Amino acid sequence: MSAGPSAAPGSTAAALRHVLGHFVTPLLMCIGMGLAYLGAFHAPEPHDLRVDVVGSGPSAQVLAQTLQDRGDGALSVRTVPDRAAAVDHLKTQASYGAYLPGKHPELLVAGASSDTTATVVEKVFTKVAAGQGDPLKVTDTAPTADGDPTGQGIFFLLVAVSIGSYASVAVIGGAGAVLALRIRAALAVAASLVVSVIGVAFAGPVFSLVDHGLGGLWAMAWLYSAGILLIGVGLHTFLKRWTTLSLMVLFVMLNFTSSGGIFRPELQSGFFASLHSFWNGAGFVEGVRSHVYFGGHALGGHVLVLALWFVVGMALIGLAGLAESKRRRAAVETAADAAAVAGSAEAGGAHGPGHAARTRAGARTEAGDAQEIEEELEETVGV
Questions:
Q1: Burial level of 8, CB count in 10 A (0-12/13-18/19+)?
Q2: Handedness of CA 137, 143, 147, 152 (dihedral sign)
Q3: Of the chain's two ends, which shows fewer C-beta atoms within 10 Å, N or C?
């Protein structure tokens, strides 16, 4: 007695080719994540890291020049006349450390700028003070909130908001593909509102990453999330199931690594350091830092970066609308031509072979669309 039907060799080979073809996406993700994260984080080294030496006499000038020469491009050392000027530089992020030489040497840092940068600066001047036989006192002029002692909570908030945003794109573009573009765009804006509120909840009442300024943080989180969602929904019209991979490149591989949340650009290679000046993740991280810890210094530039990415998203929605309108007109014309040919060839043959063939073709198309949507959602969840 037969144990049951077995798959034909041809169908097995086709299924295997289908599975192997889908391995392209995870392998590209593996390569991309490795190149991005290891390229950005594996060997951070300072370059042109601005620090100050406090003092105007010859000894301060000699110390500054000595550090500059020994650093071989790692440090950019300047002198400032007094402690007040040094603190002002730290609070405007014009420098990342200020050394006050003397019998009781002191190092001023701004931990909210970047904990890793402050650590690098502290190592440099601990050696300087030790060479003079004195212990070093470290003073943080811009400490982070109690709930974020390392100052990296904002970066992980960026991660949460980003994933919530680009994963929502797959749902809107896949499961909502039958909806009109204006409805998908409205869903994108609504999803960004929800994601930004979740982000504020994490930043405030849940983990206390910041102790004030939640309103401004929410506004930047919404603008950041809306930009990603609108860009993603717009791109989905053109890229279909490759949209998720594209968004990962834009908003994970290049975004997280250039945001400055772990290492500021002064500790990174030229490529990622250059992205920091205009990428949206850096706009969010630096915007929140400016708003919460530095009195809004340079906040307008960071918000402008987020706004420009939002504008790019709106432009892509407009282009997608034109493309979809063109496709609809072409589909209507094709359907009309097919109906005319069928009517002239087979009068009264609505239930003939031609109709059956068209019915089978439509069923195959619908099944293919459903499978594509399911695969896209599974890839997003798997990421």
A1: exposed
A2: negative
A3: N
